[in-house]
């Protein structure tokens, strides 16, 4: 997947100045030298550990509060439209139809209109907070977030949604592309995570505040499914890594069409009676 290498380098340098992630020790024409971190990368099961989960929540708040270069406004919708256009330029007519790409412009417009950006906080988001991008020092219990290729300003609820969605993945299994949505965090787990997230600023959040952010984050999972669905579809055409990108994309789009009627019961709908656009990816039986 294409991303701006210059933006990634700028982000890394700024993160280093803020004391986040590995320190930047030097740069040369074709790369850079980073600090070695005495820590281990998390596993899929670590995300479900209440203690580690609370540490991640606290680190996310710290990350979201960073004052980073760039316009402090949502980048999500612009990137979604860019990736959709890129996917359309790559895909065969069969894939374009099967993955419902022709209706996604309208879906993105709908999400941008219905998700309450004006009522929520924009922060500097990691946007790819899967377990492989989180490290922990076993002695100090300090959490370090790494790999900032997709980092940008976005609604913090979107970053929370992304983290919750990543809890269904195990990229070190025999079938790393398969997502097990039975592992999606329960309401109690999401409430606990967001309570820890909001508490990290030193003020005890109310049940209403926790509930509101839980609900907004859940709605943002729809945008997250489109984001990584498009990523998987594009990657299936441009990457040669042994990973079933197209099946991964199918699962993410499937979740979008399954969850949209539930999360937006009263929203405008261009879906069929089965909950998916005609001719596109249908839910598994």
Structural account:
With 285 residues, this protein is mainly alpha-helical. It contains 9 helices and 7 strands, in the order αβββααααββββαααα. α2 crosses α7 (187-199), α3 (76-90) packs parallel to α8 and α7 (187-199) crosses α8. The radius of gyration is 19 Å and the shape is globular. The protein starts with a helix and ends in a 22-residue tail after the last helix. It holds the Pfam family Choline_kinase. Belongs to the choline/ethanolamine kinase family. It comes from Stylosanthes scabra. This is Choline kinase.
Short account of what is shown:
This protein is mainly alpha-helical and 285 residues long. The chain contains 9 helices and 7 strands, in the order αβββααααββββαααα. The protein is globular.
Strand-residue proportion: 5-15%
SS content category: mainly alpha
* Individual helix count: 9
Radius of gyration: 19 Å
Q: What is the CATH homology-level superfamily?
A: Aminoglycoside phosphotransferase (APH), C-terminal lobe
Structural domain tally? 1
Shape: globular
Mean pLDDT: 87
- Compute the number of strand runs: 7
Q: Return the CATH topology.
A: Aminoglycoside 3'-phosphotransferase, Chain: A, domain 2
**Helix share, percent:** 40-55%
Strand order of the largest sheet: 3-5-6
CATH architectural grouping:
Alpha-Beta Complex
Largest sheet entry: 3 strands, antiparallel
What's the N-to-C terminus distance? 31 Å
Family: Belongs to the choline/ethanolamine kinase family.
Protein name: Choline kinase
InterPro entries: Kinase-like_dom_sf
Organism: Stylosanthes scabra
